């Protein structure tokens, strides 16, 4: 009985990290007929004579043009086994297609890699069309996780270069060394084979960043991807209602999205300064509105001309907004006399009420 009590006391006195086992999550390849994932730094790669994904049979899956069609060696055996008849968009005349590349990895494992293809008046290009997917067990239920080979080298473990999604969103952040699971910061490791990821307790210094409570906008903040200066940590802070616990360091907004109805506006770093976070800091970012516009103009006599397509919009913290088309409810552009401050002219964008 005394031995049992001693054992219980020993376990209670041990630090919780010693009791926590590393959580391992199996990953499986998925391909998507319709690509809806928004990557933080999307890239397209030239097809040329093949897609350079290493496999047991060589350094690439060979391809060649056959008129308007594209021939592919989809299994890496050196023979062209598929001819692709591209889908032509009736409006843009752009061509697109989707292909699954299959075979063996250089180490003999199973390889299945989905790609998207496009051609818009130039040469064929490709981009990843799939992901590795798994579920992280949490007390609230399984938490989906997806990894995307954003840099197109056939691997899914390139921290700061590849992309990942934690949760059900379609907005990806950069592959990070750390993620937040059930409110706790965890260290993440993807094995080189891309078959599993491992989560362990994070034991380094942390800070808190809040980018939702003081965001001023009538639109919904759909995503706000930040990345540390060293590229090792990335988070979608829009997923947190209030502060998020992150490793210390300097962070910048690298991408984001606003939604109002069906309209989408992209967010970039623009002139925003890095957010410096030291251990124990609790930083609340005031950003969003009011927005300001910057543009070049041409003065000809008594007329001032500027183009709606050449206007740059910046938020309160210096962040930049793209794909914003305010025609219909245009901001007012007041032209003032520099000496007196008198308003000489009020202009709105063409097509606005």
Written description of the protein model:
- The structure is a single chain.
- 5% of the residues lie in helices and 46% in strands.
- With 353 residues, it is mainly β.
- The strands form 9 sheets. Strands 21, 22, 24, 25, 26, 29, 32 and 33 form an 8-stranded antiparallel beta sheet that branches.
- The N and C termini lie far apart (84 Å).
Task: List key phrases describing it.
disordered N terminus, eight-stranded antiparallel beta sheet, five-stranded antiparallel beta sheet, 353 residues, flat, 5% helix, mainly beta
Indicate the low-confidence ranges by residue numbers: 1-20
Rg calculated over all Cα atoms: 25 Å
Structural class: mainly beta
How many H/I helices?
2
Terminal CA distance: 84 Å
Short description, anyone?
The chain is mainly β. It has helices at 2-13, 16-19; strands at 23-26, 28-31, 45-46, 50-51, 61-66, 69-72, 82-84, 87-88, 95-104, 110-119, 125-128, 130-136, 143-148, 163-166, 173-174, 178-181, 184-190, 196-201, 206-210, 215-216, 220-228, 234-236, 244-247, 249-260, 263-268, 275-277, 282-284, 287-288, 292-295, 298-300, 303-305, 311-314, 320-322, 333-336, 343-347.
Write the layout of secondary structure elements.
Blueprint (H helix, E strand, L loop, with lengths): L1 H12 L2 H4 L3 E4 L1 E4 L13 E2 L3 E2 L9 E6 L2 E4 L9 E3 L2 E2 L6 E10 L5 E10 L5 E4 L1 E7 L6 E6 L14 E4 L6 E2 L3 E4 L2 E7 L5 E6 L4 E5 L4 E2 L3 E9 L5 E3 L7 E4 L1 E12 L2 E6 L6 E3 L4 E3 L2 E2 L3 E4 L2 E3 L2 E3 L5 E4 L5 E3 L10 E4 L6 E5 L6
Parallel strand pairs: 19-27, 20-28
Antiparallel strand pairs: 1-18, 2-12, 3-11, 4-5, 5-6, 6-7, 8-9, 9-10, 10-11, 12-13, 13-14, 14-15, 16-17, 17-18, 19-23, 21-22, 21-24, 24-25, 24-26, 25-33, 29-32, 30-31, 32-33, 34-35
């Amino acid at each position: 009985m005394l031995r049992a009590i001693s054992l219980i006391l020993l376990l209670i006195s041990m630090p919780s990290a010693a009791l926590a086992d590393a959580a391992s999550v199996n990953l499986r390849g998925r391909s998507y007929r319709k690509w809806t994932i928004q990557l933080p730094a999307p890239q397209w790669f030239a097809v040329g004579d093949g897609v350079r994904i290493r496999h047991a049979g060589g350094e690439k899956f060979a391809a060649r043009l056959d008129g308007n069609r594209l021939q592919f060696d989809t299994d890496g055996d050196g023979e062209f086994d598929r001819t692709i008849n591209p889908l032509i968009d009736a409006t843009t005349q752009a061509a697109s297609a989707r292909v699954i590349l299959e075979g063996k990895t250089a180490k003999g494992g199973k390889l299945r890699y989905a790609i998207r293809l496009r051609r818009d008046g130039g040469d064929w290009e490709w981009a990843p069309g799939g992901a590795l997917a798994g579920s992280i067990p949490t007390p609230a239920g399984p938490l989906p996780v997806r990894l995307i080979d954003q840099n197109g080298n056939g691997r899914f473990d390139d921290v700061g270069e590849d992309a990942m999604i934690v949760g059900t969103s379609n907005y990806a952040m950069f592959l990070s060394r750390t993620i937040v699971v059930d409110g706790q910061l965890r260290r993440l490791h993807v094995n080189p084979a891309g078959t599993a990821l491992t989560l362990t307790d994070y034991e380094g210094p942390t800070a808190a960043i809040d980018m939702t409570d003081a965001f001023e906008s009538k639109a919904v903040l759909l995503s706000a991807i930040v990345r540390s200066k060293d590229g090792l940590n990335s988070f979608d802070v829009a997923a947190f209602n209030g502060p998020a616990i992150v490793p210390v360091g300097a962070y910048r907004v690298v991408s984001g999205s606003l939604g109002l109805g069906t309209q989408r506006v992209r967010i970039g770093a623009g002139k925003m300064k890095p957010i410096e976070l030291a251990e124990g800091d609790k930083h609340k970012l005031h950003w969003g509105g009011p927005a300001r516009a910057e543009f070049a103009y041409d003065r000809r006599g008594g007329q001032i001309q500027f183009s709606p397509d050449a206007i740059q919009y910046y938020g309160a913290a210096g962040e930049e907004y793209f794909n914003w088309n305010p025609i219909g409810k245009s901001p007012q552009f007041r032209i003032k006399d520099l000496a007196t401050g008198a308003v000489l002219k009020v202009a709105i964008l063409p097509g606005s009420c």
